[in-house]
Amino acid sequence: MHHEAFWLNSSDATPLYVNRWFCAQPAKAVVMLAHGMAEHSGRYARLGAALAAAGYELFAHDQRGHGQTARHGRLGHYADEDGWNLTVGDLACLNHHIRQRHPHAPIFLLGHSMGSYIGQAYLMRHSSSLHGAILSGSNYQPVWLYRVARLVARLERWRQGPHGHSKLIDLLSFGSFNQAFKPNRTPFDWLSRDPQEVDRYIDDPLCGFLCTNQLWLDLLAGLQQITPPRQLTQIDGQLPLLVIGGARDPVSAGKRLQHLADALRRAGLEQVHLKIYPDARHELLNESNRDEVTAYLIGWLDEALARSRQRPRTAKEPL
What we know:
Structural class: alpha/beta
CATH class of the domain at 2-140 and 226-307: Alpha Beta
Number of strands: 8
Radius of gyration: 18 Å
Distance between the termini: 30 Å
Number of helices: 10
Largest sheet: 8 strands, mixed
InterPro entries: AB_hydrolase_fold (IPR029058), Hydrolase_4 (IPR022742), MAG_DAG_Lipase (IPR051044), UCP037442_abhydr (IPR017208)
Pfam family, one: Hydrolase_4
Strand content: 15-25%
Keywords: Hydrolase
Protein name: Alpha/beta hydrolase
GO molecular function: hydrolase activity
Helix content: 25-40%
CATH architecture of the domain at 2-140 and 226-307: 3-Layer(aba) Sandwich
CATH topology of the domain at 2-140 and 226-307: Rossmann fold
Order of helices and strands: EEEHEHEHEHHHHHEHEH
């Protein structure tokens, strides 16, 4: 397995830090990854090695306000204006870069948690650029809930400013996640049953930070956009799609993964697969059964690749 890191200019010239894991032989397909909130792409090195060993190549960028990309902005902050669209557009820039490097390779999208929401918005705009997608640690809730939450975020932005960090928003969003795992060893027990993985997250200075009020406004506006059924119908109905997560993930409580899969099927997607692991928590790829999960993901990619219809491609995808 080989690894390289490089900087990629986004549509507004913001430099994006990208990790690439690959093998010496030409890849049979490429996976582009959108990571979750308050983490970064470097945490997916183990997945990159496993994919490379299976013949895949992995590209994963640090999203705006995260990881090394935050050196050219602000940690926990997409942008002062139009942050949601810029962040979704970053995936299009990455896809375009991959297409330039691999003009004929199939491309799959893997979005985890926050990245699954950004990934859904990307699918609504550019699903023709992909051969399949995986939504991990995701969620599906009523639009009215996001509207109410956005009112709170607007009040907090008014009170603290767009760059402020609201403990109230943190309490309402993440505050209850650890309650199901009492007695708690750490504030992040909800991430994984593996205490070593939880400790690695806590010890990582680029993980676990509070996001700005503006990022929350951008994210909640994005969730309002991607949730209505009419929006989901914009995704290619023939695209293979995997919804995957843990039954004890407090983000989805297991059942909301079923709700997401059902909503996608009602929207006309014909190849939606749902996989829920009993007892697993939020970060499946850092869970105690992570090898089982990784093997399943690779098997699903192999099957999706085998049955995927050939899509006409050009060297330039929409940005």
